[in-house]
Amino acid sequence: MFPTQSPRIAVIGAGISGLACATALAEAGFAVQVFEKSRGVSGRMSTRRSENWQCDHGAQYFTARDPAFRAEVQRWIAAGAAALWEPRMRVYAGPGPTDWTSHASSVERFVGTPGMTAPGRLLASGLQLHTEVCITGLQCEGAVWRLQSAAGDIADPFDGVLLALPAPQAQALLGDVAPALAAQVGSVVMRPAWALMLRFDTPLSLPFDAAFVNAGPLRWVARDSSKPGRGAQDIWLLHGTPAWSAPRLEWPPEQVADALQDAFVALGGSHAAQWQLHRWRYADTERTLGQPCVWDVALGLGLCGDWLQDDKVEGAWHSGRALAERVLARCPSPRVRRIAFNSLEYAQSLRLREAVLRAPLGLPLSAQDQKGEDAQWHFGLFDPAGALLACVVAVPVAQGIFKLRQMAVRADTQGKGLGAHLLTEVETRLRDQGATQLLLHARLSAEAFYARQGYQGESEVFEEVGIPHRRMGKIVQALK
Ligand SMILES: Cc1cc2nc3c(=O)[nH]c(=O)nc-3n(C[C@H](O)[C@H](O)[C@H](O)COP(=O)(O)OP(=O)(O)OC[C@H]3O[C@@H](n4cnc5c(N)ncnc54)[C@H](O)[C@@H]3O)c2cc1C
Fold first, then answer.
1. Is residue 60 one of the residues assigned to a domain?
2. Which of 9, 117, 234, 407 could anchor a disulfide with 392, C-beta 3.0 to 4.6 Å?
3. Under 8 Å CB-to-CB from 308, ≥6 apart: which residues?
């Protein structure tokens, strides 16, 4: 269905489902743009910051039961964006003051660090993201999608549009372009919740850090400051039940805050020095759509989010990845792909670099060669069976400037234009990410190749890894 070599995809919504979907497609070489109406990413995995305190007021923690999501969470942990949270947990069954039980569970609970938005920000860091852009309309002109925003039309056309929004917001956008799908989405029931954030001057001496509450207006209370990487102040978060919140959504903030604080006092808490309130219109899903994602290949239109099947962070991430897989399965993936650091493809690229660049010099690929590669951009050219034919690494060195290094083409495929193909594709992608200038250290044996690609010599010959090199550079046209 997609006419171009790098299909152009718009993902609307930068919550965890949209970001999971967008990163998978971008890594596969699609030209992805993400549109988000808020100032920051992460949607309902959110942290409110005010003066000198902060509090997670949406998702409180996430589980990681499935191996693929566990691996993703490990990546977040390695990047410092998430950590295990081990709160002292209790359950209040009500109605009496002694109706508490401890909550023994082997479930691991993870949180973003230093706040719940951190994993989302990590995922968004490699994406072409437009924040504070609220998409208000979709239009399908033949095989091309056009988007309207609150501030006017989006100039770029797209081959596919993926909505990663709560069901009622997706339904509103689908109304004109896919009425049958809109009606299907209308069967989903999402429920609201009030969230009250509390700051105490004196820490409360409650015997728990988090509690499931099964009686009264509250359903969850937690000491936010017991999560790893938080500040020293005593911060608590209270969530109202959907049943209590729904009929009170239009109450004045003071009245909601008083009622929820009174309920907290009845559980042994007290009144706070400062509070903040947030109204979640779509906190959880009473009736899901019952499938991981929706992908209409004929229209080039997809849906993902927590309301499709599993209304949790883990479910939203899976929904986003499932949609990306459906999209990828329908069109052959472009041959140049971004390689994730420490992935199996990365291991493949290390082997290729060692074989092509180091072994002929009698050198191993050293730890020095790999230093800082977690922050560098790795690209590979793959054949349809998934074998790596060529690779290159791009190092962001300054605003708009990248250094290309470790370009390697498999020995048996050299001289067939694959290196030029990889280089051209990588230059386009770096330019799309704001690159204006590319640098590299060319071996003299490869100088003519780079000169044919438009690189110019910028230095005298110097020695690197025991052989002569020249510094070369190329100005690439920045996108308007
Ligand atoms: C109060 C509360 C408590 C929760 N507790 C937990 C918990 O403890 N554990 C757990 O696993 N999960 C919890 N969740 C659920 C979890 O937060 C969600 O399942 C998950 O974050 C949903 O991600 P998503 O990408 O599907 O949607 P969202 O996070 O809602 O992302 C949608 C994004 O789309 C944007 N958007 C909407 N309309 C437009 C538009 N027209 N144009 C552009 N952008 C738009 C929004 O701003 C938002 O960023 C909780 C949620 C809430 C609200």
1. yes
2. 407
3. 288, 289, 290, 291, 292, 293, 294, 315, 319
Domain hosting 457: range is 336-475
| Same domain (yes/no): 340, 316 | no
What's the sign of the alpha-carbon dihedral 129, 133, 136, 139? negative
Domain containing residue 111: CATH number: 3.50.50.60
Total structural domains within the chain: 2
Report the chain's mean pLDDT, rounded to a whole number: 92
Assigned domain for 1 exists = no
Atom of ligand 1 nearest to the CA of 62: 11
Asked if the model's pLDDT at residue 74 lies above 50, the reply is yes
In a domain, 221, yes or no: yes
Q: What is the pLDDT of residues 279-325, one digit of tens each?
A: 999 999 999 999 999 999 888 999 999 999 999 999 999 999 999 99
> What's 333's DSSP letter?
P
Q: Which helix (H) or strand (E) element contains residue 198?
A: strand 189-200
What's the farthest any 2 CA atoms get from each other in the chain? 83
61 close to ligand 1 (CB < 6 Angstrom) = yes
Tokens of 458: 């910028």
Cα distance between residue 432 and residue 181, in whole Å: 33
* Residue after which a domain boundary falls, among 330, 354, 389: 330
- 3 assigned to some structural domain: no
On whether both 275 and 397 belong to a single domain, the answer is no
Residues 43 and 181 both lie in one domain:
yes
Q: Both tokens of residue 47?
A: 């942290």
Per-residue pLDDT tens digits for 130-182: 999 999 999 998 778 999 999 999 999 998 999 999 999 999 999 989 999 99
Q: Tell whether 324 and 340 lie within a shared domain.
A: no
CA 275 – CA 257 distance, rounded (Å): 8
Q: Is the CB of 240 under 6 A from ligand 1?
A: no
Q: Does position 452 have pLDDT exceeding 60, yes or no?
A: yes
What is each CA distance from 211 to 40, 152, 215, 314, 469, in whole angstroms? 29, 46, 12, 21, 63
pTM flag (> 0.85): no
Pocket test residue of 12, 33, 36, 44 for ligand 1, highest count of atoms within 8 A of CB? 44
